[in-house]
Amino acid sequence: MGADEPRFRVLHVSNISMTATREQIYQLFAFIGRIDEFKIYPSDNHPQLSTFTQKFAYVKFEDQKSVEVAQHLTNTVFIDRALVCIPSISDTIPDEDTALKTGGPAWPGQRQLPPNVVNQIKDLGDGQQMLLTVDPTLTALGLPPYPTLSANTEASKVEEIRRTVYVGNIPKDCVGDEVMKFFNDNIGEVGESFTCTIDYGQVLIAAQSLNSTEDYFCSSR
């Protein structure tokens, strides 16, 4: 391995059954190699533990080769769920608050919904299906659920849609940069923005792609 090549020593394990214990998951990966550090989230004393549908863990091995081997446990059914094991590009395990907000390792160009947000497919009959995104935080804040989507919507597109808000009744002389600055200053960082004018009423519509679903909650209130 060259001196400039990254050393992936942290494995991110997701889709862990809520009934799995810390000791069970630790022992599973300890068979693969010596573990330097291990964290599993959400913790047993997390105040919103009942709202989560899965656990996930970070396993920092002593040897990078252990990460390469551990990836092969992907799709292994543990209790009642198939594990998903991928290396994290960071050699540092995040704290619980940071991990729960990001939902997993930060791969370049890849974003994920938080782990307590679950996509479900609902059968409408006659071969028709739709995708529902269930988020307990929306319910807790008294906000309406996310709009339904086509069942075949790509996962990456679902994440992007779920952090996008649409704003109407904006003054016609307002420019996109002004709308973006308002959201950046008062709600959260905006990833991208676009505006358009519809025919009836000449109402300017702005779509803001926020950088997290948490910002979406703030903008929706």
Descriptive report:
This protein has 221 residues and is of the alpha+beta class. It has two domains: 10-103, Alpha-Beta Plaits (2-Layer Sandwich); 118-208, Alpha-Beta Plaits (2-Layer Sandwich), CATH 3.30.70. It contains seven helices and twelve strands. It has helices at 22-30, 64-70, 96-102, 136-140, 155-162, 176-186, 213-220; strands at 10-16, 35-41, 55-61, 77-78, 81-82, 84-87, 118-125, 128-134, 149-150, 164-170, 190-197, 204-210. Strands 2-3-1-6 form a four-stranded antiparallel β-sheet, sandwiched between helices. A hairpin with a 6-residue loop joins strand 11 and strand 12 (204-210). The longest helix has 11 residues, at 176-186. The protein is globular, with a radius of gyration of 21 Å. The model is unreliable at 1-5 and 198-205 (pLDDT under 50). It holds the Pfam family RRM_1. Keywords: RNA-binding. Residues 9-83 form the RRM domain. InterPro entries: Nucleotide-bd_a/b_plait_sf, RBD_domain_sf, RRM_dom.
Keywords, please?
RRM domain-containing protein, 7 helices, 221 residues, RBD_domain_sf, disordered N terminus, 12 strands, alpha+beta, Alpha-Beta Plaits, four-stranded antiparallel sheet, three-stranded antiparallel sheet
